[in-house]
Amino acid sequence: MNTAQDLGGPFRSYPGHFSALACAKAIEAVERDGASDKGGVGGDNVVDTDIRDVSRYPLPVDRGITAALVGLGLQCNFANYKFDITHASQSEMLRYDADGHYVPHIDTFLSPSSDDVRKLTVLLFLNDDFEGGNLFIQDGHDRMYPPQKAGDVVIFPSFLLHGVEPVTAGVRRSLVTWMVGPWFR
């Protein structure tokens, strides 16, 4: 297993954690067998492609490559963040076609609203044969860009502002899961 690289930001990077073959097989299986939706944002689940233009393929958190991401998320949390995490709440493959993007956002709630809150975002880059579509994590006025080759994993606290720049050519695919637990204390 690759160890995390600390690149000076609030995220951890695991370059080449998964093989290109594993990533290609994941893409093939999900796009062959999975049903996608555009997935809305916010409490009313409204689809607004000015905010987010991506297709989502929901996946089980307890099987295959997503289970491996959950394990990596737990290990990374233990070694780096020490958040009170109890489980993974959701996994999905994200497909960004041409012009697909996601404006800067956070993946969690900033006020207590449920028993579980997203604490870590665990993201696997499944391919790199596209242009644009870079994930960034906002650090004040600056954008940080973790390594983003097929097979790379990046893990960061879900309360960090981040987004995906528009894809200019090709199709960007990633797999994401969220590690959750009780409200931050």
Write down the secondary-structure element order.
EHEEHEEEEEEEEEE
Overall spatial form:
globular
Mean of all residue-level pLDDT scores: 90
Strand order of the largest sheet: 1-10-6-13-4-3
* Helical proportion, percent range: 10-25%
Can you describe what's shown?
This protein is α+β, with helices and mostly antiparallel strands and 185 residues long. Helix content is 17%, strand content 35%. The protein has 2 helices and 13 strands. It has helices spanning 20-33, 64-81, and strands at residues 12-14, 52-53, 55-59, 87-96, 101-105, 117-125, 131-132, 135-139, 142-144, 153-157, 162-164, 167-169, 172-181. The strands form 3 sheets. It has a 6-stranded antiparallel sheet with strand order 1-10-6-13-4-3, with helices on one face. Strands 2-5-11-8-9 form a 5-stranded antiparallel sheet, with no helix packed on it. The protein has a two-stranded antiparallel sheet with strand order 7-12. It is globular.
Give a brief description:
The chain has 185 residues and is α+β, with helices and mostly antiparallel strands. The protein has 2 helices and 13 strands; from the N terminus they run βαββαββββββββββ.
